[in-house]
Design a protein that fits this description.
512 residues, Spore Coat Polysaccharide Biosynthesis Protein SpsA, Chain A, Rossmann fold, 2 domains, 7-stranded mixed beta sheet, 33% helix, 18% strand
């Protein structure tokens, strides 16, 4: 941000003819020279709000004021969308949301933008709850006070935040941060404010709060409290599920980044590290190495690791000994020579068009006594079965129904694939439901609590009784089956034929 940021003020107004001029009057005179743009957006008011704004522009020459009238009511959220798009088009650095009804103090505009100017955050929220007792002194009714506190605590718990208030409409944003979130996908209603907080949290944006006075005058409240509480509860619950991998995450800020290392006990990664770490140091080929977090632990055990992935994640070259960038749908890189003691494919084969070809190439790179370690999600798990049963099949951001998965496997179908490639199962392990992801990003992140531990026990018992239904993943160690008949082997050569240009998948070959 420049030393003198371009500051814009967005005034959202609906039926604010009696209050708009007073709100604009209260903008500090010694602050106006720092304001690049002011937009009053009349949201299809039924009174003379627009005319008041136009008249005010004629008498105030020190305020760079633009007044527009929406031809129809866009809603509180819809009006904000117009304003933030305006801020982006005007190349502003900071935009402050101000209400035309006078509920929030324009006198605090310098304090609202100060943390953004010094670069300490991406958004500033005015909070009526930071100072004990201030909300009641300002006239906030008891039912709104307690409703605010209950909803805020609920939202903080599920979203892993520590905001004192989620429901203030006095906000300032860094415009570059707004560009990073899909705010245009949000609701047009009052729940827009909750959705944009969730988007900022998902995108890792920094939020700062400052105390503001509470004011309740004779303005008309257009919020349906019951509907508002229902809507924001729905959004934060949806966010919690999407953060755990369920749902497509279309309203969140970005697709998941590098494939995360699963560090909790008895996950596929911990099982893989236990198996490989217990073997004498050797050469490991890590297919789908992502950022190399698993490879770094293998190297710490003395292994020499060569990594392959579709994209080069930040830090990967520091975590592996050698790195190759390759699209697995076109085969393993021809530059890889020699034999490996272990070929690792953790959560990889489900992402390629031809898993048989990939397994065949992995087999050819094995040393005579080497082994393949591979993990795959179980499509026979109760979760996808239930979704199919109720006709609600769709892809998720992560997990068994990850939207980047091209192939699905049950235990029997994957073991048939193993056998077809001249491989045999040395050992198999069942991985249970990843309970820890449900707490990821919440106030209990890293601590499953009593409820999580209880669910884990139940899942473990069910896993023992019927693994084909309750195993979330399968982890295998494979070896070459020297008794396999040559005619059963699908792949004779590691040099895979290139895919015709008309069949190029591009991002479909991404390893996640």
């Amino acid at each position: 941000m420049q030393n003198e940021p371009r500051i814009g003020i967005l005034v959202v107004a609906y039926n604010a003819a009696t209050t708009l001029a007073r709100v604009l009057d209260r903008i500090p005179r010694d602050f106006t020279h720092r304001i690049a743009e002011v937009l009053v957006s009349d949201d299809g008011s039924q009174d003379s709000t627009y005319l008041v704004g136009m008249g005010y522009r004629q008498i105030r020459d020190d305020l760079p004021l633009t007044v527009i009238r929406q031809p129809m009511n866009l809603g509180y959220g819809g009006n904000q969308k117009v304003g933030y798009e305006w801020a982006i088009e005007k190349n502003l650095d900071i935009v402050v949301l101000l209400h035309g009804d006078g509920q929030y103090a324009p006198e605090l505009l310098p304090e609202m933008v100060a943390p953004l100017e010094n670069g300490s955050c991406d958004a500033v929220f005015g909070s009526r709850m930071l100072e004990p007792g201030a909300a009641r002194k300002g006239g906030m009714p008891l039912y709104k006070l307690y409703g605010n506190r209950i909803l805020t605590r609920f939202e903080n718990t599920l979203a892993g935040a520590e905001l004192s208030e989620w429901h203030s409409g006095y906000r300032a944003y860094r415009v570059d941060a707004l560009k990073d979130v899909p705010f245009e996908r949000n609701s047009d209603g009052f729940d827009f404010d909750t959705q944009i907080i969730l988007q900022f949290l998902e995108a890792g944006k920094r939020i700062t709060e400052i105390p503001i006075p509470t004011f309740y005058g004779d303005e008309i409240c257009y919020v349906n409290g019951v509907r508002y509480a229902r809507d924001i509860s729905k959004h934060v619950l949806k966010y919690r599920l999407q953060s755990a991998g369920f749902g497509n995450g279309e309203s969140l800020s970005a697709a998941p980044g590098a494939y995360e290392k699963k560090s909790a006990p008895d996950t596929s990664h911990s099982r893989i590290l236990t198996w490989i770490g217990s073997q004498k140091p050797g050469k490991v080929l890590d297919i789908g190495c992502s950022d190399g977090s698993v490879a770094s632990e293998l190297r710490a055990s003395g292994h020499e690791v060569t990594g392959i992935d579709l994209e080069e994640s930040p830090g990967v070259r520091e975590n592996v000994d050698h790195f190759f960038k390759a699209d697995l749908d076109k085969g393993l890189p021809a530059e890889i020579v020699g034999k490996f003691d272990i070929v690792l494919a953790a959560d990889v084969v489900e992402h390629v068009r031809d898993p048989a070809n990939l397994l065949g190439e992995m087999r050819e790179l094995l040393a005579s006594d080497g082994s393949i370690v591979v993990s795959v999600p179980n499509f026979g798990h109760w979760y996808p079965r239930t979704r199919i049963l109720f006709g609600s099949f769709d892809y998720d951001r992560r997990g068994i129904l990850d939207g980047t998965h091209l192939r699905f496997f049950t235990r029997s179908s994957f073991e048939r694939l193993i056998k077809s490639q001249g491989l045999r199962v040395k050992r198999r392990h069942y991985i249970g439901l990843p309970i820890e992801v449900l707490y990821r990003g919440t106030a209990k992140d890293g601590d499953q609590g009593k409820s999580g531990k209880f669910i884990k026990i139940i899942d473990k018992v069910a896993l023992q009784l019927r693994p084909t239904m309750f195993a979330y993943q399968f982890v295998y160690e494979l070896a070459v089956d020297k008794q396999a008949k040559p005619e059963l082997l699908v792949n004779k050569s590691r040099k895979a034929s290139p895919i015709p240009a008309s069949e190029e998948l591009g991002e479909a070959g991404r390893i996640r």
